[in-house]
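hi!! sorry for the late reply, been swamped w classes. u asked for the two structures so here they r. pasted raw, havent cleaned anything up. first the sequence of the first protein and right below it the tokens
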Amino acid sequence: MDGFPILSLMLAIPAIAAIACLFLSGENARWTALAATLIDFALGVLLWANYDVGGAQWQYVEQGARFGFFAWDLGIDGFALMLIMLSVFLMPICIGASWRSVTDRVPEYMAAFLLTEVLMIGTFAAQDLFLFYLFFEAGLIPMYLIIGIWGGANRIYASYKFFLYTLLGSLLMLVAMLYMAQAAGTSSIPALQATDFPAHVQTWLWLAFFASFAVKMPMWPVHTWLPDAHVQAPTAGSVIL
């Protein structure tokens, strides 16, 4: 499958379907979302079947144009492959679980989940540091809406807490990324892997990334957003969380 932009296709299908859902009735939006997620799952199976376990570290590499501070560079290794497969496996289940339980603003709900799928796959496939950060942080937006609009009685408080905790928690990671890109002269993740940062710098960079991921996971004592978000989110939203 060399040269075939399968990762971009897996991003484009749910993105286009999300836009289409906004102009459809509730029932048609459900079927459109289900079809898009099943197509992405089929592409994920194709991705898995053609992955060369003994081959290069980065496979399905796509190098596109640069947009301002980031480049459209995609590619996956074995870990990213498993996470993408988990994402495309769960999304049709989430759509099915919401088929009759969600009756209010169905087109917007389906669009939010499709956008979530785009951003999850993009996070795992990004090979540019700032493209990764863009996908990683943008994933907060549809989940914030899913909790805040279709959640339980205390959904507004839970959605704000979720959004602020996870957004502010990532600022240290952004600072670390800016330093890495400036010091190495590139934002390419494969190139940064080969960059020999001084040991004390690596320690500070690790701490910055650890602090951000600790909030996202979450780990004690920065975990208090998760119980509220899980309780208030709709069932499918809890699955994605």
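now the second protein. again sequence first, tokens right under
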Amino acid sequence: MGVLDRLILRDEQWERMSPHIIGDERTRGSSGRDNRMFVEAVLWIVRTGSPWRDLPEVFGEWNSVFRRFSRWSHKGIWWRLFAALSDDPDFEYLIVDSTIIRAHQHAAGAKKGPEDQALGRSRGGLSTKIHMAVRGLGCPVRFALTAGQKGDAPQADALIEGLPAQVVMADAAYDSDRLRNAIADKGAVAVIPNNPSRAQKYPLDKHLYAQRHLIECCFAKLKQFRRVATRFEKTARNYLAVVTIAATVLWIR
């Protein structure tokens, strides 16, 4: 079985993506010749976790593919593609959580320093944390990166800001008066277990809270893409693009 026998995108999936891709015959002055093969090349890297230099020749020159991937990251094209395809209005539930990603040693050494690149150091080594909000059916709708040692609760406000929801769920690490007030201001119900140190206890709907497993399932699906499960990118911008690409695939499956 060759590389071309294991491409990710089906024809109907590409038909959904292609109107949002730049550099085709509809865009004057662009140089993209085979956009589908370029996207498949990036997906091959994201899925396998292989170094860019190991990109099979059938996809083209590895350095050209990498530079185009990086340009799209810089211009926010991957995020615009995700935003265009993640258009389901089902926001009955909004679930917030984070996961720690171990970073390969090659992820260190970016020019601006580790803190600027969402790269932290702990006893386990270098790490990055993905903070994410998913909708009620378990698909990601918003995510952000921080260094691995950063706390969860301070990132929650930005994750839920502007997103409609009837219920917002999170684990006890997010239990703070500030977040509960922000959720109430949205007209939503907070389903968050009480932190053991909290003096004023809030009731918890355990039936609703059982749905929080959906975000754990979402993280598990994202980590099937090996370049998400381990960070190899030196810059936070490019690693966020990798996460965005994997999240886009979840939406069009």
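hope this helps!! also noticed smth abt the second:
The two ends are 23 Å apart (CA to CA).
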